[in-house]
Design goal:
Elements: H1 12-31, H2 35-48, E1 52-53, H3 54-60, E2 69-74, E3 78-83, E4 94-99, E5 104-115, E6 118-126, E7 139-146, E8 152-157, H4 177-180, E9 195-198, H5 218-225, H6 227-240, E10 250-256, E11 261-263, E12 269-272, H7 275-289, E13 299-304, H8 321-332, H9 338-346, E14 349-353, E15 356-357, E16 379-382, H10 398-411, E17 415-417, H11 432-436, E18 441-446, E19 448-449, E20 457-460, H12 461-476
Parallel strand pairs: 1-2, 4-13, 4-14, 14-18, 15-19, 16-17
Antiparallel strand pairs: 2-3, 3-13, 5-6, 5-10, 6-9, 7-8, 7-10, 11-12, 12-20, 16-18
Helix pairs in contact: 1-12, 5-6, 7-12, 8-9, 10-12
Length: about 475
């Protein structure tokens, strides 16, 4: 069954709304490239929309009532937003769930290395990447360094036009005969993704050379053996108050430098980093915050970390964070108890807001055209993901798929259905199966992406707009 290109249906008013959403989105993802930055910015937007801190309300012993808006955050990297509805909570919620982490390079705990008078940050890649895509492009450092006394330093270097940038170097083509004979997975090894950060040695005044060894500073001693590393450490100390040991308790992420940009002569697309999954997380957040009237069913949006490495850890969807937040909400709403919690989770319905692969004509052989997502054709629904016979997938029920179809048709949302490529061509997973374990109805839905997991990914502005409309309609919907 063929779907129409969504651009064909837009009125002048639609185009105005679409461009406003796309520009807000472009600026948001340019400024918030990591899960910490996304969560912090999301909380700021929610606070401005009247959301209150759930933990503070819990400490106060406050009661929740229909119309109240609350939010909860875990370690600054996962966040839940809830708009309390008029119906009893034990009847379930309408949930949007997206992830806010993206593939990148992470600094190792002992990252500073000097070799041949060049200093690098040693890294460990995060999530599924093609290593060779990360060489020779401008890179930025984002994250936080936490000192032993608990104080912290926010790091964001490489985004301002006046900032320096960083890079992973590559072998010149003239000497690359053996390298070019390697397979794509080996042409650049993971251990070779070292980020170049300096080459200027620390110059010690001649008089300092006469100082007895016992009286030399640590920097002076280091400068005799690793002068460029000494210079970098001196700079870090002077500018940021960071010692080398502080990097043991740091989370520094290496991401592509620079803002997302409009793509194409017609400006119909956006080229940017981290659109898996910001292209779903941002419209999900916006849909949640756009609910001005009290919904019938409580509307929840959960934005989680660690999806790209299996949703593990305290801030991943596989933790108890989401369930714990729901338990607190129900207790403050006067519906405390494990049975009520279990009933509410089972009778909830959820859109797992995650991206899908857009059919790329350059690589059409790995797609099956009748079951592929097309750029500009609207919100994508994946009844199942997984690989090797749907392994690891949440296979949504026919009844729930029909329910979602009805919601989208009633709201005039352009949508399409897809699989992640041909059978046995590959596969992938989302957070859907983790919430489905409660017995709730879940289906994957999101934006089609070209060059998924590359440093720069492509989405259609039309698909962003249709995703936002679809998410709003779903949050407002009645139960199946």
């Amino acid at each position: 069954m063929k779907t129409e290109n969504a651009w064909k249906k837009y009125t002048a008013d639609d185009l105005r709304k679409l461009e406003k959403l796309a520009e807000d989105y472009r600026q948001f993802i340019s400024a918030n490239k990591t899960e910490r930055e996304f969560a912090a910015a999301a909380k700021d937007l929610a606070r401005a929309a009247g959301y209150q801190d759930l933990e503070a309300l819990y400490e106060q012993g406050a009661a929740l009532k229909p119309g109240d808006k609350v939010m909860a955050c875990k370690d600054g990297k996962a966040v839940v937003f809830a708009h309390i509805g008029s119906a009893p909570l034990k009847g379930g919620f309408n949930i949007l769930g997206a992830h806010i982490d993206s593939p990148r390079l992470d600094l190792k705990q002992n990252p500073l290395i000097e070799r041949n008078e060049l200093v690098h940050f040693d890294t460990h890649y995060y999530g599924g990447i093609k290593n060779y895509q990360w060489v020779t492009i401008p890179l930025a450092l984002h994250g936080v360094v936490v000192r032993e006394d608990g104080t912290s330093v926010r790091v964001n270097i490489g985004e301002d036009p006046s900032d320096p940038v960083f890079c992973v170097s590559d072998l010149l083509i003239h000497l690359a005969r053996e390298q070019m004979e390697k397979t794509g997975s080996k042409v650049v090894e993971g251990e070779d993704l070292d980020v170049l950060i300096g080459s200027r040695p620390l110059v010690i005044e001649p008089s300092a050379s006469d100082v007895p060894e016992s009286q030399k500073t640590d920097v002076q001693k280091l400068a005799e053996k690793e002068p460029v590393k000494a210079a970098i450490l001196e700079l870090l100390q002077q500018k940021y108050g960071i010692e080398e040991e502080d990097l043991l308790s740091a989370e520094i992420e290496v991401v592509p430098a620079g803002p997302a940009r409009d793509l194409g002569f017609d400006r119909s697309m956006i080229l940017g980093y981290g659109q898996d999954d910001s292209s779903c997380a941002y419209p999900s957040l916006l849909a949640q915050l756009s609910l001005t009237e009290t919904p019938q069913r409580t509307a929840l949006t959960v934005l989680v970390d660690k999806e790209e490495i299996g949703s593990v850890g305290a801030t991943g969807m596989d933790s108890q964070f989401f369930e714990n937040v729901v338990a607190v909400i129900m207790a403050l709403a006067g519906e405390e108890g494990d049975l009520n919690l279990r009933h509410a989770l089972e009778y909830s319905q959820m859109l797992s807001s995650d991206v899908s692969a857009a059919l790329d004509p350059a690589y059409a052989s790995v797609f099956e055209p009748n079951n592929a997502a097309y750029l500009g054709h609207g919100l994508v629904f994946n009844k199942y993901t997984g690989s090797r016979g749907k392994s690891g997938s949440n296979d949504s029920s026919a009844e729930f798929v029909a329910h979602v179809r009805h919601i989208m048709h009633q709201a005039g949302v352009s949508f399409q259905t897809a699989e992640l490529g041909k059978v046995d061509a590959g596969g992938g997973g989302t957070i859907a199966y983790m919430t489905a374990k409660y017995g709730m109805d879940v289906i994957d839905s999101g934006v089609a992406v070209l060059s998924m997991h590359a440093p720069w990914e492509v989405v259609s502005k039309a698909d962003l707009y249709e995703a936002f409309k679809g998410y709003v309609a779903f949050l407002k919907a009645e139960c199946l």
